[in-house]
Amino acid sequence: MKPVRIHIFDSTMRDGEQQPMLCFRDDDKIALSYALAELGIFELDLMPSIDEHERMLIRLLNDTPLRNRIGVSTMVHRKYVDQAIMVNARVAYAFVHVSDKLMKARSKTRDQLLAEIHDVLAYGRSRGLIVDFCGGDGTRADIGYLRELLTEIDPLIRFYQTCDTSGVMTPMTSAKHVSELARVLGEGRIVVHYHNDNGQSVESVAAALHAGAVGFDGTFTGIGERAGNVATEGVLEYLHRKNKEYVEGINYDKLPNVLGMVRSI
User: Which structural domain, as residue segments, surrounds residue 47?
Assistant: First the structure.
């Protein structure tokens, strides 16, 4: 078996909770956060803007050693960065849609959006946050615009997370997309966040990792809106079975416990 170094991000309690009829209780989120940390997940994604109660919970978790494992999703506006500061966040994942189709739906031009993204990322950095940028619908965005955007924000971000919001990626298109992004940001800067609408998210994430992505963001059991997100355990199994690879830092003995917790919820 070959060891591989991959950053595994977890959105089970944020994007996963968008699955219809699903709502995590506070004790569920607290217990699952500790279980994910014991498993070896790189960072857990939570979202302060949901409501005041969620902000209280995130602040509670950030007052424990789990703070080193938690990041918060923030929309592209300074007030959401301020919320990240309020909950004592260490890392912020700023996100907005970057495809022309969804920019048009929100009455934004490319130049307007780039300026807003740059402003929020710079503001987050000035407030002491580590910042990542998540390009919503990024797999359908114009690659020329992505090059311009990523060149502009490169000095401000740790990782760029490309989001397959509509679940259109195949292994071939995924590898090509990541390779093109890596030409701009270099190696070790690309993370992928894929949905499973076409049923190939596991294979597409694996292709992205072998094309140069340094990590991926998934949910356990593949929960999420529509057809769900890529199943984290599915990617781990695929890498193990197909490529004879195991992820360094992951305690595989803890995996059944995490899956059991999510399934019971």
Answer: 2-264
